[in-house]
Specification:
Blueprint lengths: L1 E4 L3 E7 L2 E9 L3 H14 L5 E10 L2 E7 L9 H10 L5 E8 L6 H19 L2 E14 L4 H9 L4 E7 L3 E8 L3 H10 L4 E13 L7
Antiparallel strand pairs: 1-7, 2-3, 3-6, 4-5, 4-6, 7-9, 7-10, 8-9
């Protein structure tokens, strides 16, 4: 299980006239994190530093990266990444932008400033658990689709789309360990599934958005 944020969030800290702006983004891939970082640097092009850290899960592996962006080595990106690790946060990019206020903070002061603004912003964020899951395409009859919807709503299974053709085709996200139970439960309830096919493995949120 991992933790991620529900929505992007920002926070600020003033330390000896230097302004630290923390932006935290939900990202799903290394490429998305790198592209978002480029956007932030472009937005805050006039800032002295745009320090960053991210953790994403790709192919069942955690990819981590941090950058001090010109600050003394180990005073910004590293402490920010350490906070993500300690909080078990994944699929998250943190960028802290610093506008220099004219007063040097020293290495200890920099570590405290970058750590504090990151931690304070994370504490304000809405968080959700993420689990290793699977994506399936399921075919059901029109007479059974409402029963499927009801079951999924009450068992933390996300239905992300429907295709209404000769039968109803829907895509679900489900925890890996729950799919056998899902098949067993709907059989007991005499809910007929015409066919199902696994699409891929993926991370899923504990209480995801469900389509109606």
């Amino acid at each position: 299980m991992f933790v991620t944020i529900e929505k992007n969030i920002s926070g600020e800290l003033i330390e000896k006239k230097s302004k630290f702006i923390c932006n935290i983004y939900y990202v799903e891939t290394k490429k998305e994190a790198e592209n978002k970082l480029k956007e932030v640097k472009k937005k805050y092009f006039d800032a002295r530093h745009n320090c960053s850290a991210y953790r994403v899960i790709e192919n069942e592996e955690i990819i981590e990266k941090s950058s001090d962006d010109g600050e003394p080595s180990g005073t910004a990106g590293g402490p920010m990444l350490n906070i993500l690790q300690k909080n078990n946060l994944c699929n998250v990019l943190v960028v802290v932008t610093r506008y220099f206020g004219g007063i040097l903070l020293g290495t200890g002061g920099l570590v405290r400033a970058y750590s504090n603004v990151t931690l304070n912003t994370i504490q304000k964020a809405e968080k959700t658990n993420m689990y290793e899951g699977e994506e399936y395409n399921i075919e059901v009859s029109y007479s059974n689709i409402e029963n499927i919807k009801y079951y999924c709503r009450n068992n933390e299974i996300s239905i992300i789309n429907f295709d209404y053709l000769g039968n109803v085709f829907c895509t679900i996200y489900i925890k890996k360990e729950d799919f056998a139970k899902f098949l067993n439960d709907i059989e007991k309830r005499k809910i007929n599934i015409i066919s199902y096919k696994k699409i891929c493995d993926r991370l899923i949120k504990l209480a995801p958005h469900r389509a109606d």
